[in-house]
Amino acid sequence: MGLLDSFEKGLERAVNSAFAKTFRSGIQPVEIASALRREADTKAAIVSRDRILTPNDYVVRLSPDDTQRMQALGRALNEELLALLSSHASTQGYSFAGPLAIAIEADDKVATGTVHVDAGSAEGRVSWQGVVEIDGRRHPLTAARTVIGRGTDADITITDAGSSRRHAEILWDGERAMLRDLGSTNGTKLHGEKIREAALPTDSTFTIGRTELHFKVVPVTTPSTTPRGGLS
């Protein structure tokens, strides 16, 4: 697509066109977007076969004059940068270690028209958690064996007449998951196919009765500092 890929073009359309008069000289928003993407790519680390972690806390350092120009946009610039960096991470298969935050700060040592980005490394602060999502509600897998069904004694209870009281279970060892049907009346489907027992990779969808359940493996962190965001 030439010098600007779709990530950069999205910011150019959403921000530059609306605030073109603000940026007659100095840094351009599209350059900030590119710098954030490069930093995310550079700091991305493979932590397992199917998990790539990238920092979630970014500080954009600009000259005082450029910072003043960016502040003229208020929240618009920050919101676009957050959305577009999230989209880039999703496209690349990256996971953030926590809530994404981008701060823009003035730095006398940075020349006008240039941008420096520092990203906080999440190395050593991340654990991985298996979760089941049902109708937007997330249920963490806190035990090695999690029973799902309509019975009150199930670990995850679903109100579905097509499910058995103890319909299926997920076995989770902290890295891998297995889905097992517990002799249910109507069976358990994984990606539309009935199974008795099958590996359950992240981003899998399985069905109990008429209920769709989504299994994911997500990063869990305890923030060491208060996340930053917005323009400083």
TrEMBL record:
Q: Where, if anywhere, are coiled coils annotated?
A: none
InterPro entries per record: Cell_Proc_Reg/RNA_Proc, FHA_dom, FhaA_N, FhaA_N_sf, SMAD_FHA_dom_sf
A Pfam family found in this protein is FHA
Please name the PROSITE patterns in this protein's record.
FHA_DOMAIN
Q: Which UniProt keywords apply?
A: Phosphoprotein
Domain FHA, by residue range, is 146-195
Highest taxon listed in the record's lineage: Bacteria
The protein here is known as DUF3662 and FHA domain-containing protein
Q: Name the source organism.
A: Microbacterium istanbulense
